[in-house]
């Protein structure tokens, strides 16, 4: 039996007067969907170089087009399948107007940096969808139900997901979320909206829509499967979102696996129907392809616990094709007009469908795989052209069938023109000039870093033409928009753009347009002065030390790596577990970076023992790519224990500590330069025989810091060229300036140092102290009681040793890499000595 009500009912069961009203309403509602799709295409085309989706493009599509489509069609399906009267016409019309006003407020508020408007718009969208879900639940409870009653449950929980996701989005847009919350809240927001609001609605609809599109009967047991799969999908999504918010990857992975299993169960009727009857229409092919890409998305997301890099697959492959496939089938049906009109409308929508579907599905892999830039741009052009052509065909179908009333048309046009204005303003970077006049100009370097724009104030005389050279030095994307309309594109870490400001006639404000960033203080001001600009502003130099503001405070959530070294444990056998994980860490004051880690820290855990001890290491790969491990402290053939293992695999690495020393361990997977440069290293301390006791023992692993997306071409180029953004002890540039190591006056302090590199060594020095003991690479160079002293422990990459000093009096003793390029760029800290 096909799903009831998706095709027009016989005239005898529905009064003729209702059909024109219903088809007119669907013409209006789907016209709004098509308008948002058109705005999405415009936003994609005006972005320079057709880059990967940014905030505006994603929300024009998902918040504008998809949200309107879900609200409209879930009500239609629930009404038809449950055989209940449609709601009064005032409710859908009011809902349409208020919903789109809220959407426009979100887009306009974020694009203009008005946090109150954006968060108010988010609250409006949440309220409308909450009311919509409540109405569905109440009306569904009063219906007769039957074999289609399960559909309402999927739609209601889909609405609950949007309420949660919209609330998280409103929190981000308000600017009230602490900076440390941004990444987990954004990840949770993405997952609950895409897998919940969109995913649950799609899965619930496919139970009845899929057999209807294939013109076959619904398979037996579909209702039972629908109920059981929903009972697993909702808790799975809730656990995943909770894990993402708490930054517990294992919990997020468990939730995503449960959701994926529930989705697989829900798709059993889909597959059984597919085996009974193969796709044979444009709508069926698009729905089949969209569902396949949804399955790929779930598998990849469950393995990575992140949708980063998967958005093109989600937006184009899954959501875009599913939406267009459903509209291809449903629009001719609901617009009515009899068999002849249905056939004519379907023929319009299906024009050139085969090359359009082929283009989209050929483009999707190219949008997520590491292919040359020109091929990615070509894939975007093909995908946008193929999907955009549907908008033209569908609009022609709607217009030729029904014309909405002037009141409805006015409301719709007003909402969409507001959104279009916001979109054009936010996309104006594609048209902003970047040329610099030959004379009468001043160039200022502007840094976007640590949720600040630096310099925050630029002073210039009237008539000055400013050229702002804007560089994002932060780990998260930022842009700069001026009140005069000039704006950069959204910049990833390390990217630079140039803005040319017209001759200065008044003071100008600037801000970052990322949701919440303006409210959090990411603003600047160009002040017009009566005289020449101050000398210090002529070149826009950075504040602080080097390109990062190392004097800025660390985030409240930051915790330093514990450098205190515990004595070697007793016994000869040591069993440890080390897990490779991807984790976002604060690597410099206010700068967060995705790192590849051992046990979630940089460096990884310190292993300590004595000569003759045996270490059994269970190495587990919980990361998103292959990793290995290499312990310099062991001597054995590398073929098996140092091999690369894939995500989810484990191996046992056993070695005997034959020699004393401060040893490095690191990832053994090629290219090791990138794996080590992204944090995959640690230290093994094997005590020399008869090592005397020290009052304080610390371990410092010296390494380089490369900002940017791990594995990106830009980051890899910096590594090959030996151009770190900073140097660090124990993974955080200047970290021990903010959390000093401690000792008491008269203490003997032993500091173990390992040089991780991967490209540069260190010259370790403690200002105000002299070393009376130096141990390097397995041998004492100086012992307590010798006549001489030492000032530096010099280590090449991969070497290690320790130094000892007695701190004579209370005070602050800086320790540094005495290669001042390194020391001034993060490789420094404080030893705080109390009386």
Shape: globular
Q: How many beta-strand segments?
A: 27
Structural class: alpha+beta
> Radius of gyration in whole Å, from Cα?
31 Å
Q: How far is the N terminus from the C terminus? A: 86 Å
Walk me through what this model shows.
The protein is an alpha+beta fold. It is built from 19 helices and 27 strands. It has a 6-stranded mixed beta sheet with strand order 18-17-20-25-22-23, with no helix packed on it. It has a 5-stranded mixed beta sheet with strand order 19-27-26-21-24. Strand 9 and strand 10 form a beta hairpin. The termini are far apart.
Q: What descriptors fit this protein?
A:
835 residues; alpha+beta; six-stranded mixed β-sheet; five-stranded mixed β-sheet; 19 helices
Topology:
Blueprint (H helix, E strand, L loop, with lengths): L17 H29 L8 H28 L7 H23 L2 H27 L8 H25 L7 H32 L8 H24 L3 H18 L1 H9 L5 H23 L6 H25 L2 H12 L3 H16 L4 H29 L4 H21 L14 E9 L2 E3 L2 E4 L4 E8 L8 E2 L13 E5 L7 E4 L11 E6 L44 E16 L2 E8 L8 E4 L3 E8 L8 E2 L18 E7 L4 E6 L5 H6 L3 E7 L8 E10 L7 H9 L4 E4 L5 H4 L2 E4 L3 E10 L4 E5 L6 E4 L2 E4 L10 E3 L4 E7 L4 E7 L2 H4 L4 E7 L1
Parallel strand pairs: 1-4, 3-8, 9-12, 11-16, 17-20, 19-27
Antiparallel strand pairs: 1-2, 4-6, 5-7, 7-8, 9-10, 12-14, 13-15, 15-16, 17-18, 20-25, 21-24, 21-26, 22-23, 22-25, 26-27
């Amino acid at each position: 039996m096909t799903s009831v009500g998706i095709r027009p009912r016989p005239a005898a069961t529905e009064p003729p007067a209702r059909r024109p009203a219903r088809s007119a309403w669907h013409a209006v509602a789907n016209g709004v969907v098509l308008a948002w799709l058109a705005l999405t295409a415009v936003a994609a085309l005006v972005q320079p170089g057709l880059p990967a989706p940014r905030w505006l493009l994603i929300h024009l599509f998902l918040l504008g087009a998809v949200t309107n489509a879900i609200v409209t069609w879930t009500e239609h399906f629930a009404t038809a399948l449950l055989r209940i009267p449609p709601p009064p016409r005032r409710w859908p019309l009011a809902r349409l107007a208020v919903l789109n006003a809220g959407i426009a407020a979100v887009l306009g508020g974020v694009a203009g940096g008005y946090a109150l408007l954006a968060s108010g718009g988010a609250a409006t969208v949440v309220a409308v969808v909450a009311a919509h879900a409540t109405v569905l639940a109440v009306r569904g409870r009063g219906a007769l139900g039957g074999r289609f009653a399960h559909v309402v449950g999927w739609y209601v929980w889909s609405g609950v997901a949007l309420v949660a996701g919209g609330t998280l989005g409103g929190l981000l847009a308000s600017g009230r979320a602490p900076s440390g919350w941004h990444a987990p809240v954004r990840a949770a927001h993405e997952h609950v909206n895409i897998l919940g609001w969109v995913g649950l609605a799609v899965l619930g609809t496919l139970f009845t829509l899929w057999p209807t599109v294939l013109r076959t009967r619904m398979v037996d047991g579909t209702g039972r499967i629908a109920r059981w799969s929903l009972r697993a999908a909702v808790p799975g999504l809730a656990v995943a979102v909770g894990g993402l918010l708490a930054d517990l990857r294992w919990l997020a992975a468990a939730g995503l696996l449960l959701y994926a299993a529930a989705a697989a169960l829900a798709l059993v009727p889909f597959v059984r129907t597919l085996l009974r009857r193969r796709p044979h229409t444009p709508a069926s092919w698009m729905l089949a392809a969209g569902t396949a890409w949804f399955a790929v998305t779930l598998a990849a997301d469950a393995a990575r616990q992140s949708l980063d890099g998967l958005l093109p697959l989600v937006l184009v492959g899954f959501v875009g094709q599913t939406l267009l496939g459903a509209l291809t089938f449903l629009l001719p049906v609901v617009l009515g007009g009899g068999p002849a009109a249905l056939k004519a409308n379907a023929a319009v929508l299906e024009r050139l469908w085969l090359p359009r579907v082929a283009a989209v599905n050929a483009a999707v892999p190219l949008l997520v795989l590491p292919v040359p830039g020109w091929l990615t741009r070509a894939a975007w052009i093909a995908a946008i052209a193929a999907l955009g052509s549907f908008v033209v065909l569908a609009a022609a179908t709607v217009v030729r069938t029904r014309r909405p009333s002037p009141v409805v048309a006015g409301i719709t046009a007003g909402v969409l023109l507001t959104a279009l204005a916001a979109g054009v303003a936010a996309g104006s970077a594609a048209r902003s000039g970047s040329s610099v006049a030959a004379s009468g100009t001043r160039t200022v370097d502007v840094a976007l870093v640590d949720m600040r724009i630096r310099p925050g104030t630029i002073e210039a005389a009237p008539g000055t033409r400013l050229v702002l050279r804007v560089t994002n030095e932060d780990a998260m994307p930022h842009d700069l928009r001026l009140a005069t309309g000039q704006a950069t594109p959204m910049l990833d870490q390390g990217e630079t753009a140039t803005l040319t400001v017209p001759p200065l006639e008044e003071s100008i404000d600037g801000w970052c347009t990322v949701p919440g960033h303006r409210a959090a203080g990411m603003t600047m001001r160009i002040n017009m002065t009566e005289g020449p600009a101050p000398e210090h502003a002529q070149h826009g130099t950075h504040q602080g030390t080097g390109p990062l503001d190392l004097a800025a405070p660390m985030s409240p959530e930051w915790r330093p790596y514990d450098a205190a070294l515990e004595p070697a444990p007793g016994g000869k056998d040591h069993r440890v577990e080390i897990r490779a994980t991807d984790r976002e860490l604060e690597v410099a004051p206010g700068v967060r970076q995705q790192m590849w880690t051992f046990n979630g820290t940089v460096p990884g855990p310190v292993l300590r023992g004595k000569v003759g001890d045996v270490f059994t290491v269970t190495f587990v790969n919980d990361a998103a790519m292959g990793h290995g491990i290499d312990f310099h402290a062991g001597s054995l053939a590398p073929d098996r224990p140092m091999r690369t293992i894939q995500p989810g695999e484990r191996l046992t690495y056993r070695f005997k500590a034959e020699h004393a020393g401060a040893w490095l361990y690191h990832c053994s997977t090629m290219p090791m330069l990138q794996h080590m440069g992204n944090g995959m290293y640690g230290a093994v301390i094997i005590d020399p025989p008869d090592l005397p006791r020290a009052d304080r023992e610390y371990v410092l692993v010296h390494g380089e810091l490369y900002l940017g997306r791990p594995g990106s071409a830009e980051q890899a180029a910096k590594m090959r060229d030996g151009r770190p953004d900073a140097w660090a002890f124990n993974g955080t540039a200047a970290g021990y300036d903010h959390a000093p190591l401690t000792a008491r006056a008269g203490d003997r302090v032993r500091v173990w140092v390992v040089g991780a590199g991967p490209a540069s060594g260190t010259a370790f020095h403690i200002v105000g102290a002299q070393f009376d003991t130096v141990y390097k690479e397995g041998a004492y160079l100086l012992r307590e009681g010798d006549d001489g002293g030492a000032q530096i422990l010099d280590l090449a990459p991969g070497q290690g040793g320790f130094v000892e000093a007695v701190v004579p009096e209370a005070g602050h003793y800086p320790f540094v890499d005495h290669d001042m390029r390194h020391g001034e760029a993060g490789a420094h800290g404080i030893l705080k000595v109390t009386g």
